[in-house]
Design brief:
alpha+beta; Beta-lactamase; eight-stranded antiparallel beta sheet; three-stranded mixed beta sheet; 11 helices; about 15% strand; globular; Class A beta-lactamase-related serine hydrolase
């Protein structure tokens, strides 16, 4: 009898050990499959990126991919500077141009949360030194390029006047309106100049200091903060040289100048991983406390007739600083910068993607679908 009891206990112990071993094997198998899938996805992304760089002649590219609030892939390829054959690395900063507008959108929504401003407020409630015809435009219309206010930049993205900012501003103040506020979409930098002034007035800081304190320092973005808002004017360590082919088939150095008031529209530089961290913070109630604030950022501002508009093609709406693509009820927020940088948020799948290049005309947004599907 005693021996039977001992055998029974031994068998139970063996069964438990076997179950534990099987469970561990199952876990290890799942992890190995997951690791294999991740490795395969990363390989697919890398192949596509390198192929696209070769196709477009892109000197350098940085990429970071976020899945469920974690950076799951990040890498840097190519040359930060062609003249000196300097390789780019993960700390190299790239100009992000109009992606700066997304930071301005967050800054504005932070002030909305503080109840210092409403998106339905008009310019006339804050400024009396602008034409009366400008004062009817709402804050939301400025952010979504629906104000009809004349642009401070010309069709070649240069200041309206070659004689400095003061001359440019004077010419803009007397220029004809493009259309009545809310009647249509037309990409416009003047609205962001005025939003920069508004942020400074309401926060008591320059818009640069406000964004640096409330976003860059909060998320820990030291490379972005060090680069500042005046790219191409200052000497920034480990920064990618900009190139272009817009003026012809040969690669040329890219020269851009953004006067200080226009830096809300296009002044920043950053790295892919720091931008990825910023996107994680944005979607984790770190930068904005109220869930409806993030929803507002990613909701198209409506025109007077109730429709939405943006650049055309997949971009059929513009939120608070963010171009939007709304397809089959699903919204993707895609911030574009200088025809060479992009960051996208896919709320439905928990994926965010950042791709930075140093080639104007690199159009890295064309990689988004392939990268998203690989993850």
């Amino acid at each position: 009898m005693l021996s039977e009891i001992l055998v029974h206990k031994w068998m139970k112990t063996e069964m438990k050990l076997t179950l534990i071993k099987l469970s561990l094997l199952a876990i290890l198998f799942c992890y190995s499959i997951l690791g294999w899938n991740n490795a395969f996805a990363h390989e697919q992304i890398e192949k596509r990126v390198l192929s696209y760089m070769q196709e477009k002649g892109i000197p350098a590219l940085q990429i970071a991919v976020v899945k469920n609030s974690k950076i799951v892939f990040a890498n840097t390829y190519g040359k930060a500077d062609l003249s000196f054959e300097v390789a780019a690395n993960d700390d190299t900063v790239f100009a992000i141009n109009s992606m700066t507008k997304a930071f301005v959108g967050v800054a504005l929504m932070q002030l909305v949360e503080q109840k210092k401003v409403r998106l339905t407020d008009t310019l006339g409630q804050y400024f009396d030194d602008i034409p009366a015809t400008w004062q009817r435009a709402t804050i939301a219309q400025l952010m979504a390029h629906q104000s009809g206010i004349p642009d401070v930049m010309d069709d070649m993205a240069r200041p309206r006047s070659p004689y400095g900012w003061e001359s440019t501003w004077r010419e803009t103040l007397v220029a004809d309106r493009e259309f009545e506020e809310g009647e249509q979409f037309n990409y416009n930098q003047t609205g962001y100049v005025l939003i920069g002034r508004l942020i400074s007035r309401l926060s008591g800081q320059s818009f640069q200091d406000f964004i640096t304190e409330k976003q860059l320092q909060k998320v820990s973005m030291p490379r972005t903060a060090a680069a500042g808002f005046n790219h191409y004017a200052g000497i920034i360590s480990n920064s990618a040289t900009g190139y272009t082919r817009f003026s012809g088939p040969e690669m040329q150095r890219l020269w851009e100048a953004f006067p200080e008031p226009v830096q809300t529209a296009a002044g920043m530089q950053s790295t892919a991983t720091e931008l990825a961290s910023w996107l994680i913070a944005l979607q984790s109630n770190v930068l904005l406390k109220e869930p409806k604030s993030l929803q507002t950022l990613f909701t198209p501002v409506k025109l007077n007739n109730g429709s939405t508009a943006a650049f055309g093609g997949p971009f059929n709406g513009y939120g608070i600083g963010w171009p939007l693509s709304v397809q089959e009820g699903k919204t993707t927020a895609i911030a574009l910068g200088g025809a060479r940088s992009v960051m996208a948020v896919y709320p439905e799948t928990g994926v965010s993607i950042v791709i930075l290049t140093n080639l104007q005309g690199g159009f890295p947004e064309r990689l988004l679908t392939d990268v998203h599907d690989a993850i």
